[in-house]
Amino acid sequence: MTFQVDMGEDRTGKSVPIDLEELLATRLLVQGNSGSGKSHLLRRLLERSASQVQQIIIDPEGDFVTLAGPHGHVAIEAVQYSAPEVLRFASRCREHRTSVVLSLEGLEMEGQMRCAAAFLSGLFDAPREHWFPALVVVDEAQIFAPASGADVSEEVRRASLSAMTNLMSRGRKRGLAGIIATQRLAKLSKNVAAEASNFLMGRTFLDIDMARAADLLGMERRQAEAIRDLERGSFLALGPAICRRPIAVKIGPVETSARSGSPILSPLPQAPAGDMKQFLLAGFDEVPPRPVKASPPPPAVETVLDQIGHVDLTPTPEIEAPDPALLNQLVSDVLRAIVEDPYSTARPAAILFQDFQVRCRMVGVQAPPLAPSAFARRLAAARAGIFDGLDEEWAVAIDAATDLPDDMLGAFLLVARAAREGEACPTDEDIARTYGTSSLGRARRVMNYIESRNLFVIRIDLAGKRSVTIPALGWTTRSTETV
């Protein structure tokens, strides 16, 4: 059984079909610059074949989720799931022969590549009894099979490229027919592109892309200029599922549309120019309100009575307490020595607590003056340059940071000290050193996390200088470079 998918008309007005059965065996590559009509072409192919074959679409921009209504596709937002869940989802798609659209919208490039690799691996590794024929459409394939190193980890790049290569080279025996679309052939891995036997080449302008397209179409280099002159929605077609010689085809209309259409000119709003400045800058000087902390519910009466019944009333022998002022000074000196040790920067608080106990015994303090949790907070403050006054002058700042993890308290207090004294905002290197790391990226994530808790309001001006306001305290640092 075969089925002809009407894609449009050639220059003589004759219909140009694609043999669906042949397409399943020979795969398809679509190329064209942004705006050339690739998504329109894929949508035409999917709509006209939806009732004949299972369709699986990897959609980086979420444009094809509109197929879910009239054609019964199941749209899945990948941002809501983990990689193992996506892999199981792919296996169930093959088992139940359900047409799906996996939308990767909302994920960064590395997340999209990681998700696509897991999904394609799930399709590829399905049991033999589930090897039913399916069209696997990958839009913007250069993201998942880059010709050169992308701005992602090598592990993710290799996994994504391997999954795409398996789809195009070994997927046919498993019933998977790869249909890949790309803006530029030069950005797409040659090992992936070479496995396609059918081609639809749209408008492109760069010489290297026109030359590769002409080679794939079997055209001479001087004929490659025709690719530059193609109209939007027109493609040069070649392949065993379409035709034996290159022909130009104008893609026909579609029933559904993408969520993000092409830009259309519309009249600008009419507003008084004199009032527009105050509209644009309104509220910039306002400090966001500090979130109200919910008080924990009081314990039940039975719980309190039970705790009272288990209190040990045995009197303990009295131990002469050391002088508080002297003890506090000794603790401050020990913390200062630990912070000044260059090897202590990358050591966790649990390890440094042991060092703290040894140093305390060396200065004559036998019993540990601080519990591990209290030491972690004192250490964080010491790394921020604060050794005394935590319970007095810095109490309001400590109270504002109650919801922060202990390891982030140092970064908060470092910024708070600079803001209180009107100094420049600490750099990312300062934040990293206080946090106990050498990674500037981790330091930025710490700052972003604190801002997400509404403890910081970070402002970066057009010169790239950063200043931080602490709404709960009303303190603001001076602007400075972030690194």
From TrEMBL:
Domain Helicase HerA central: 11-77
Gene3D superfamilies, A to Z: P-loop containing nucleotide triphosphate hydrolases
Highest rank taxon of the organism: Bacteria
InterPro entries in UniProt: ATPase_Atu1862_pred, HerA-like, HerA_central, P-loop_NTPase
Key words, A-Z: ATP-binding, Nucleotide-binding
The keyword Protease belongs to this UniProt entry's keyword annotation: no
Recorded GO MF terms: ATP binding
Record carries keyword Nucleotide-binding: yes
Pfam families, sorted: DUF87
Protein name: ATP-binding protein
Species assigned in the record: Sphingomonas paeninsulae
